[in-house]
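Design review, sub-item: ligand-bound model
Attendees: FS, YL, KQ
YL presented the inputs for the adenosine-5'-diphosphate complex:
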Amino acid sequence: MTPVDPLQAPLATLPGVGPTRAAALASAGLRTIEDLLLRFPLRYEDRGNLVPIARLRPGTATVAGEVVDARLKPTRRPRFSVFELTVRDATGEARAVFFNQRFLEQVFRAGQHVVLHGKVEWTSQGAQLASPQYELVDLSAVEEGSSVHTGRTVPVYERIGPLTPKLQRDLVARALERLPEQIADPLPQDVRRARGLPSRREALLDTHFPPAEASLDALNAFRTPAQVRLILEEFVLFQLALAEQRTRVVAIAKPHLVEVTPAIRDLARHVLPFTLTPGQKRALREIVEDLQRPAPMNRLLQGDVGSGKTIVAVLAAVVAMANDLQVVLMAPTELLAEQHARTVAARLAGTPFRSVLLTGSQRSRLRRDALGQIASGAAHFVVGTHAVLEDPALFRRLGLVIIDEQHRFGVGQRARLRGKGRQPDVLVMTATPIPRTLTLTAYGDLDVSVIADLPPGRRPVQTTARPEVRRDEAYAFVREQVAEGRQAYVVLPIIEDSEKVDVRAAVSMVETLRAGALAGLRLGLLHGRLGPTEKLDVMQAFVAGDLDVLVTTTVIEVGVDVPNASVMVVEHAERFGLAQLHQLRGRVGRGAAQSFCILLFERPLSDEARLRLAAMTDTTDGFVIAERDLAIRGPGDMFGTRQAGMPTLRIGDLRRDHELMADAHALARELAARLPAEALPRRLAREAWAGRFNLAGVG
Ligand code: ADP
Ligand code: MG
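KQ shared the predicted structure:
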């Protein structure tokens, strides 16, 4: 029998927690003692420095005293109420006012003892606290100067239904009192010592009831050693689960062996239309080394828009195909799949390898043909959308899977992909501007190659933000560029992620441009409601230079590559997200000519929109953009859905704590290598995360 872990005891075992409170706690996800203790306070309040009322000065202060009077004051305005509280201590009296909180009539009564914390204002009647935080306390405790609720820095918890912050503080204090002398610690001692972090027990105590010397600022920034230790613990367990997933993959032997012979090198050189940048070379070397290993590759290729990831993938594919393996390149949209299919076919023209396109909307005969070629092995390189992977059995000998521009492919999906078929090598390519620390979160199970440079001759896109009253100027500039033989994009603020693409709005905007600002130019319109062949026709006309201007919705966002396009006008740029604007802008600046991006915005601008536009005009560096985006939006939103592989954390906050993730990542890989599988941290990591990744049974 395993000894019962006291931290796992249900909260109902705490004195003071009956069925009603237990249910309320459960509604907030708190079931065990550990759940309660691993919930951080919202903030901390310094009640160690109670200010005598006579010495109140404007600023922020905490006072304690007895309620002398509590009443709702009449006002002239209907639906507006002022509740006034008068409090006395040994030195004097002060008032506190609360607006539109009639229910306080039920809360306060003369004779009660309260602690008030908030902003002190000076009025003709003396000191006044405006809408302070309040808490009813036990006076004897105040006088003794030390307790759970006053005389010290206290934690303030988020209210849970009927459970006030004060009641929760009592519960936490009781739970901590009963904490055994020894509790298991998933962070090994040497790891803690190296970072100056306390044991788990100490960290729990100090997080909820900080020692007198703890700085209030550090506490409220969640940066005391105790808090950091608990956050790091959560991150390490998460990263350990990812590391386990990686270890499992590394232990697999691929059914095929990849070799790189001089003949294969020649073939690759033949495919290459230009010299690789140093960054591309390094990434390719890392990938090809992976291909030659006995275990399947699981690698992320990260590089800003335009850094040239495609050719790196195609060269890796040549190595795989020369080893008699099939390759699939998966794109997030049909448009991008079609474009990749063209690039790949062009590159493979002088080689023995054949490529096919496979998409969901293909006509059935085309699709049947493609499927036949894939099954027979006549097609070596398959370019397609997600549909391709629904049935990996359709390949004769699948060896390499390349997932392009994919930020919607989480850990679980990658694991499932691995579960089917032949243990292919997997390369995920992304230009998603996300900070490195978040890459480690969403893709922590992958090895990472980064292309940090751009192909030679690229000049940063000159970006300006203009109010829409200057639209005419923007389009006059487009005409100039077209007169010089260049092409342009006009992006419309019609978001394609919903079912309702407003085609009429798009069509009427094109008509307006055609009749006015862009009269005489050759305009094409691209939107999500066009059929696949229509889309392809428009795109091909633009690539061939038969269109001067491509008016488009956000379907164009990812990956499209037309180097002659040198200017982009974004209508209603204030409506787009920062990552999206960066992706859009990546469509220009792909050739040697100077490119331009004009962001037209409508006033009034929200603060966030202003920050986004400023980030765009300040920099073209995707990683800088990513950091700014994180600061503006927070990490949850950067990925959209949970599916993206972002963990749901209970202590850590990715916006606040993401720097700790890099340490956790390195640490987890080290622990996974040195600790046996049944060691506590590895076991906890599996229990906590494996289910959430959907990893059960896949490996
Ligand atoms: P992304 O990384 O955004 O997917 P692409 O692979 O589409 O970028 O490459 C962007 C453009 O740069 C393409 O037109 C490609 O042909 C070109 N390119 C890539 N690598 C080089 C290089 N080393 N030298 C010159 N042009 C390059
Ligand atoms: Mg690309």
